[in-house]
Every structure is written in C-alpha cells, then in structure tokens.
Design a protein that fits this description.
114 residues; mainly alpha; 5 helices; 0% strand
C-alpha cells in the first residue's frame, strides 16, 4: 500500500487541462499586449517631436484597438485589450516627446532596463 501512495502523490510535469487552457489564454494576452505596445509606439513616432501627454497614451492605444475592430467584435473585449495595453505602457515623464516615449515603449518590449 505505501508503494501506491508514493506513486500517486509524486508531482507531475504535466498541467491539468484547465491549467493548460489558462496558460494559453495568458500567453495570448501577452502576445496581444506586445503587439499593441509596438503599434502604439509606431503611432506615436509618426510625430516624434511633438510633446507627449498621458491623454495621448490612451488615444494612441484606442486608435490601435479601433483598427482591430473586426477582430474584437464586442466593446467589452476591445476595452479589455485597450486597458491591458495602457496598463503595460511606461509612465510619461516630464518633457517626454512622442519619439522619446515611443523609444521607451520599444525598450520595454525588448525587456531592456534603463
């Protein structure tokens, strides 16, 4: 009997079906966020010398999400994606231009710490 208990109580290296599904959803959200961050950086870099503001972070993210309206058919999903990207954006520093802020976004995506 002790042999059987040891065999069944050993940790497994496989995720349960529910855990694997959760992992895939989280990986998908991470990928969506990274793509969104790159797109927001590209939108902001269209006018690199203009001053950067907190409102522009949300506007640029909204512009990206609206461009994907066919992918996110309902407003709730689009809102979740939008705020996921906004939350991942670095804070706007005083004196940031759009170009500087865009560069900091890309450094964050590349996981470079400054």
């Amino acid at each position: 009997m002790p042999e059987r208990i040891r065999a069944t109580s050993a940790p497994t290296s496989h995720l349960t079906q529910a855990d694997e599904a959760l992992r895939q959803v989280q990986a998908g959200r991470t990928a969506q966020t990274l793509i969104g961050l790159r797109r927001v950086a590209a939108i902001l870099s269209e006018q690199p010398d203009e001053p950067m503001t907190d409102d522009l972070r949300i506007q640029a993210t909204d512009r990206h999400v609206r461009s994907l309206r066919c992918v996110y058919r309902d407003a709730r999903t689009a809102g979740i994606v939008l705020w996921g990207i906004v939350d991942a954006l670095p804070p706007v520093l005083p004196g940031d231009s759009r170009g500087e802020y865009s560069t900091r976004i890309l450094l964050k995506v590349a996981e470079v710490t400054v």
